[in-house]
Structure prediction request, 560 residues.
Amino acid sequence: MTGRRPLRASLYVRLSKAADDRNLSKQGMVDDLRRLCTVHGFAEVALHVDDGASGGIRNRPAFKAWLADATEGRADVLVAWHVDRLSREGLNVAAVILDVIEGKDPETGKVVRPPVRLIGFDDRLDSADGEGFRLNFLIKAELARAELSRMKSRAQARVRRMRKEKRSIGGLTPYGYQRAARGPLELEHDPVSALILQDMVRRVIDGASVGSVARDLNARGVLSPRDHAAMRDTGQPRMDKETGEPLPRQAWTDETARRMLTNPVLLGYLTEDRKIIRDSDGTPVLRGEPLITKDDWDALQDAINGAKRPKTRKAPDALLSGEVNCPECGSVLHYHYLVKPERKQEYKYYRCAGRTRKGNGCTAAALRAEELEQAVTDFVLSTFGDLEIMKKAYVPGDDVATRLAEVEERLSELREDRKAGLFRGEQGTAEFREMYASLEQQREELEAMPSRPEGWKYIPTGRTYRQQWDGTDTVGRRKTLNEAGVKVWAGKCKDDDASEILSQLQKLRDPPQGLIGTRNGIAIMITVGDDIESRLSGNPDAYAHWGPDSDWETPSLKLN
Prediction:
């Protein structure tokens, strides 16, 4: 009619999976709704899109905003593509929508605002059709709910079938791999991420911490697993589903790298919840070509699980930060640095953490850092400075030892599965006994063969501790102390009397080897690791003195 404003229409579209440039469903539905508005002479006032949202969830932002356009008077018509785009909860949500279009209060059921019109494009529903609309709307809502139930059942059946067939049930492609185009295995090496992951493995085996590797990846700008997958699969960075804007890059973390390096998928195995899936005879099911060898896997797990990280705060400019302890209470001595500009003086000292952090009443006095660090330096260079550094290296077992370890692992997993109730009934019991008996026979046969177990050994590096010490900075020297197993206990002599503090040091028995002495009013006990101790044990002059200046105030004492 001339002079009347057109009815205001709010449009709603939902896609179960997020749309991309290759998915035309989203734009197609929007175009359909706009054509419907043109035919009826509606004026579009809003378009709401839930991109990648399940119809089984009612708390969808765009869906709620679409209904609010009606309840808050911004729209006269609600336009949707189909009932199954509104919800797949059946009558539950259908009743909510009916209250909105009929202008009713959801609590009292009374009409409290003007009704609005609901029109569907694909299902041709129109609330202007009266009672026939209500019946059709409720039937279609229930059909949408039933279809969701069938989809869930089909998905669950697919998962059960794929598990039975020992196939992957989907999920993210593991880092280092990409989907294979053909062949019996579903994964193949990713030419970019496989090399990065293999380098991570090598560095951790060589002694780097997982955290330091993660930090280095961030410093070099290496894409995180999710960012790399997005660029590989779409050629674009990850996008925000709501705004379509690029998301900030994810950072590598210690936890991300650690989970990746401890996942058996590195060996190409099919896993579920990080547990290896095996066939009927206990052999791991392969999903792709291994990224690393079994020997490297064993060395990697040993390096990660056996690594001991300092628990105290590190001061990168102090030689003994986190490496020296208080003989009175056992707490670590923290490095402190103080500058007094008015005096143009610097103060560097070590102070017992037990006095401040633990409040244990320790009375140990602070120690001058220069004096304590020089004493330790003299000890290192004079006692084992000319010894060759021996690097701890992993030696894999031979094929027999490796196979035997795998059989033991399979037997352990079978016992766990039986305990968890995975072999129930007569058939399950028979399957368990058959598999267990087969593995026990393999174990007996392997145990009868000569084998070399895996382990670690020390190999020469061609470089002495003195050369290492002179060629590095403070942080490198602290690392050298840590790798040599050097431990230090130090306390200040009270009233120039060393007897009390020396008595406390002699009572320490962990570890039992070491040296005790005093210098410049500081009583010190220093111990070394087993490798150095064993090599010094055959040299009676090794502990004869500490430092070339021979200024120790009491004779060195070799602990028993």
Observations:
- Confidence is low (pLDDT under 50) at residues 19-24, 165-169, 308-316, 544-560.
